[in-house]
Automatic annotation (TrEMBL):
Protein known as: Uncharacterized protein
Organism listed in the record: Ignelater luminosus (Cucubano)
Top-level taxon: Eukaryota
């Protein structure tokens, strides 16, 4: 996490013991130990980031999943808070080394088009790529439990700091420290890797749509 804002590990550390802090941590304290390992990992990630920023033979993007926003967004209306709304994600691709503009002040907006204009308006150079219905796939979890159980070491998400996905391969490579040692894992069921299909489109449920229309149509009149 490059920005390191609102980080749970740091927050836990800050709150756990008034006598333990950044300058004065305890060697015997579990939370202090965990926090130091966390900071060590973050430092290495930032070093990697700067290393990438120095390279000029390749185009390297930094990807950041920003706030999850509920649409329509007007928190001042109770009807909106209590209705299951649409969840939208704003994923940014920024060339490494460039300052990233994070959308922090969002006004109220009613529909997806409003959201798009708000994001577009954050900077002149922001190009917004909106996704269409056909871009949403109904992903099925094709993990092979059998393959996973046989893996040594067993991969855990909290131990993974770097992954590599290569076109044409169904395997995933990962590093658990930034030491250049990659584990190559093959975890998909062979049924899928032999017959690769992602042709199902995923939408929202009819009930959710009906609830939004029923509860919010009064306020959204011009947007439906
Ligand atoms: Zn942290
Ligand atoms: Zn401590």
């Amino acid at each position: 996490m490059i920005g390191h804002e609102e980080c749970e590990s740091c927050e836990e550390f800050n709150l756990h013991n008034p006598d333990h802090n950044k300058e004065n941590f305890s060697k015997d304290c579990n939370i202090c130990g965990k926090w130091r390992a966390h900071i060590e990992k973050a430092k290495k990630a930032i070093d990697k980031y700067h290393e990438d920023a120095e390279k000029d033979d390749k185009v390297i993007y930094c990807v950041d999943l920003e706030k999850v926003i509920m649409i329509p967004r007007w928190e001042m209306f109770k009807s909106a808070i209590f209705t299951h709304r649409l969840m939208v994600y704003n994923e940014s691709f920024v060339p490494v080394g460039k300052k990233q503009k994070i959308v922090t002040h969002l006004n109220k907006f009613y529909d997806f088009q409003d959201f798009v204009s708000t994001v577009k308006g954050t900077s002149k150079t922001t190009e917004v790529l909106t996704m269409e219905l056909s871009n949403f796939h109904k992903w099925v979890f094709y993990l092979s439990q059998y393959k996973l159980n046989k893996m040594v070491p067993r991969p855990y998400i909290h131990n993974i700091v770097h992954i590599k996905i290569e076109q044409g391969s169904f395997n995933m490579k990962y590093e658990s420290d930034y030491d250049g040692e990659f584990f190559d894992i093959n975890f998909l069921s062979s049924k899928v890797t032999k017959n690769n299909r992602h042709d199902l489109v995923n939408g929202i449920s009819a009930l959710k749509k009906e609830n939004i229309m029923k509860n919010l149509s009064g306020v959204m009149k011009n947007h439906l």
